[in-house]
Each structure stands twice: as structure tokens, then as C-alpha cells.
């Protein structure tokens, strides 16, 4: 009997150890490279309730006169007013303000390599330049600028940007920095010079969207807008992203409603399938990947041409919606 009891104990312990080992192996952390290859435009779109808009634009009173310079925030709701957030506002006229901005250099997938020296402030612009590292696996050298201050709704931010004329996403976006659990608003992911011959509208298409990710479960939808649909008297109607500076804005209204703006006009919107709950940083970057949804991989010869390889940001103005004093 004593031997039988001990044999049973040994058998139970062995089975338990085997089960624990199996569970540990199945729940192992993903490799860094696997995380890196989770490209953001591959998830399916999430249907959501329609917002109050006409032809992709927010309903506005007939007597509204748009400020095509983009410097005037949207009309505040009754009893509210816009208050400038200095920590997220910059004219970029002097130097890189390290109290407001940092260079966040985590990488996208190959061939992107983020480097601090590929961004800075000069001649009244924040700039991000794409350069070539010939012979390297990560030959697309670029950079990323991120705010040190985070913000939450209700808010409005607008930035005046001239895109690099290469097959890459020139971006202006908000994110909390966790790929598996994040709230993200992409104001723009613009590419004026797609290399794939598969995105004919990209030189004028403002690619805007949201992501809401909880434990890698993604909700997402687009609010794209074509600048050829701007008002007839808007001087930037039909002007591609690299030819002139454009202003790109977002009014993050509440936990689910997000309205985008282009050159002073409402320009597409999204309604999130889940409530946004996180404070977000503001980010600009420039990156490429060999995928049709981005417009195709950047051409190496374009990275050696200083007339087309640089994204320029003239200014950013950010506001919080507060009760009128």
C-alpha cells in the first residue's frame, strides 16, 4: 500500500509538471520581429454607426465662412471655447524644443531605420528627411518626432505640412505607444508619389483612420477624403501634398466621434466602435513598406534627391475645449 501511494504521488506530480510546461510554452511572448511585422493597415474595417455628415463632411450651418489657412479652430459648441495648449503648440521658428518634443526612434519593419539625425528644426520648419543607407538591410533612414505631453478629448489639433514626394507615408497622428493596447487617430498617412501604379488617387487622398486595440483585438475604420472635393474657392483644392503646404486637423470630440479637417474645411470623419479612454501623444514620422496599401516601396534614387526626400512641418496649434469663462 505504501509503495502504491508513492507511485500515485509521483505520477500526479509528473502529469502536473508536464501540463504546466505545455501551458507556459503556448503563452510565450511574441518575438520582437513578429510584433514589428504587424503592419497597421492589414486589419479588417469595423462597421460603426454613421455620424451626422453629408458626403463625408460634417453638417455645418450655411452661413459658415471657412478659414482656408486652417488657423481658425472649428466653431465651439454653445457655452464652450477653445483654449490654446502651449505644450502642444509650436511655430518651429527658432530651434528644436526639447521641453515639448522628443525623437522616438523605435523601428517599423524592414527597410526602415529611425535615426535622430534625420530630423530637426531649420528655416522655420520641423523637418524629417528620408536618406539612403546603401548596402544595408534597413536602407530607408528616417525619423520620428513625438510630443512629451499627452492629451485627451475634447480637443483640436492642426498642423501645416508639406509632404516628401517619395513613396512613403508622411504622417501626423495620435497614439499612446502600445501596439497591443492602444487608442490611435491617424490624421494623415499621405503619399503623393506612389511607386506601385495601384493608387492613382493618392496624390490628393487624405488617408485618415482610427484604431482601437484591446489585447490585440482591433477595431478600425477609415475617414479618407479627396482634396479635389474641397470648396471651389479653396486655393488648395486639387493641389497635391508635395506641391504646397496643407493644414491637417482633427477634432477629437468625445469617446467615439472624430472629425478630420483639411485646409480649413471638415474632411471626413469616423465613429469608433469602442470608447477611447487613453491620453495620447502627437506624432509625425515618415516611413515606407513594400505594400500596395501604402502605395509601394520608396525608390532608392528618390532618397538621394534633396528636392523631394523631406517632409516639412511649418507649425502645429493645439486646443482644449473648455467651458466659457
UniProtKB/TrEMBL annotation:
Keywords: Hydrolase. One of its GO terms (molecular function) is hydrolase activity, hydrolyzing O-glycosyl compounds. Residues 33-70 are annotated as: Disordered. It comes from the Bacteria. GO terms for biological process: carbohydrate metabolic process. Residues 42-52 have a biased composition (Acidic residues). InterPro entries: Beta-glucanase-like, ConA-like_dom_sf, Glycosyl_Hydrlase_16. Residues 66-324 form the GH16 domain. Belongs to the glycosyl hydrolase 16 family. This is Glycosyl hydrolase family protein.
